[in-house]
Amino acid sequence: MNTNLPVSDIDVLRLLLVEDDEVDCIAVRRALRTVDASVSVRQVSTCAEALNALRADRFDCALVDYRLPDGTALELLQQLRPLGESPPIVILTGLDDEPTALLMLKEGAQDYLLKSDVDGRSLLRAIRYARERGRLTDLQQRLAHADRLTAIGKVAAGVAHEINNPATFLAGNLAFTQEYAADLLRFVGELKGVDQAAELLSKFDVHERLREIAEMSKANLEGIQRITTIVKDLQTFSRVDTPKAQWVNVNDVVDFACKV
């Protein structure tokens, strides 16, 4: 049967069917056979089994029932997000509810199909479109990440300057600390009795040097914290964003942008 929907871009379309109703599973397999698609279908019946399958193997698309024995498709989508890359998800359900459908799409599903309306042709089309939309989303994220890395390259000189400042006084303070520590060791070595204590304390100015060591140690800690903050900001700037929208504090965004 010619459906004018070629699948020649792949050898075998690998699908994960997440469905606990055996009758519906048979219906999906039968629908795919009617379009002569080269399809390999792996079936699981719970969210937990789906997560394990997606961690262990690669699929071109996942067909997921909304209600499952251990959760819903919404919960599965939320659990998939920390995994990073995952196949496009098509919700295949008997629940005809527009708000739920919109929520699924906002949470990352590529399509929401009613079981009663699905035949082989529409199902294969939905899978193909979901894969293409998934590829486009992935490409957009990669381009955004590449732009961000380019921006990091442009500010590298400024970042080097910001790190060099605390690094310079860290090196100077450590050199003085090393010198003072050597003097104190020599002082202890020369201290042979109580009678010489006052003379040696005055000669080496022990109290003043200990005070300076304490001040330099405090400055060193501040410098290390400054370098750590710069590196942390760069890591935040270069990370790959998740597609999920979330509320943010605009002040935090502006402060971070100014620091970068």
Features:
260 residues; alpha/beta; 5-stranded parallel β-sheet; two-stranded antiparallel ribbon; 9 helices; 63% helix; disordered N terminus
Count the beta strands.
Answer: 7
From the spread of the alpha carbons, the general shape counts as: elongated
State the share of residues found in helices, binned by percent: 55-70%
- Backbone structural class: alpha/beta
Major β-sheet, in short?
A: 5 strands, parallel
Main-sheet strand order equals 2-1-3-6-7
Q: Your description of this structure?
A:
By secondary structure, this protein is an alpha/beta fold. It is built from 9 helices and 7 strands. 63% of the residues lie in helices and 11% in strands. The protein has a 5-stranded parallel β-sheet with strand order 2-1-3-6-7, with helices on both faces. A two-stranded antiparallel ribbon has the order 4-5. The chain has helices spanning 22-33, 47-56, 73-80, 98-106, 120-154, 156-190, 194-204, 206-238, 250-259; strands at residues 13-18, 39-44, 61-64, 67-68, 71-72, 89-93, 111-114.
Layout of strands and helices, then pairs:
Elements: E1 13-18, H1 22-33, E2 39-44, H2 47-56, E3 61-64, E4 67-68, E5 71-72, H3 73-80, E6 89-93, H4 98-106, E7 111-114, H5 120-154, H6 156-190, H7 194-204, H8 206-238, H9 250-259
Parallel strand pairs: 1-2, 1-3, 3-6, 6-7
Antiparallel strand pairs: 4-5
Helix pairs in contact: 1-5, 2-3, 6-8
Short description:
The protein is an alpha/beta fold and 260 residues long. The chain has nine helices and seven strands. Strand 4 (67-68) and strand 5 form a beta hairpin.
